[in-house]
Specification:
With 196 residues, the chain is an alpha+beta fold. It has helices at residues 41-52, 69-79, 105-112, 140-155, 175-192, and strands at residues 2-8, 21-22, 29-30, 62-66, 86-92, 102-104, 122-126, 128-129, 134-139, 163-165, 170-172. The strands form four sheets. The chain has a three-stranded antiparallel β-sheet. The two termini are 25 Å apart. This is DUF7587 domain-containing protein.
Amino acid sequence: MRVYLSSEDAVEGNTLRHQSQRNSSTGDLIASDSSRRITDEAELKQAIKEHIDWWSRKPSCFLSVFSDEKHARHWAKFCSRTQFDVYIYKIDTTHLPTDTYLFDVDSLKARLGFVHPTSTHEFIFLHRITAQAIVGKKDLGEIWEEEADAQRYATRPFDPNYHWVAELDDYYDFDEECEERNRCDDLIKMIEGDWD
């Protein structure tokens, strides 16, 4: 699963509310309260309620991430109103160590009985996200540039030799390029035994 973290890189020693820091020696993303220990459901519920309450001034032991990139982009833009350097980190959960705690907020909401109206696509890590799971990083400038490019593509004049192929989720210049990609996919399916 890929998840996306909208985060601001903190200056060393600066511990603003909900702010994560990138450890300069390990590259890990660390929650502002990485020492809090949770021993039961009541403590977990309280820690989550403090994390999702934007009026709370307590440092959080969680890092919120989103399973939907659009949601993460929207959140990054929202955060950029009050913070300076906002980034989106792409995290591959298959590279996480086995002792990592990652919670689905919707599942916790149902189990623990707290209210969080914007929990769709949200997951929370306890204490840290290790550097080996971080597979990409973009700042807001790059994100806005990508969105501007997409808008330009959407409004460009029609060219029959350059078209969008929904199945491949990309633009292609020539039909041959599409067909080559299809042949490669078919060969992989045959090798893996997934051929229909």
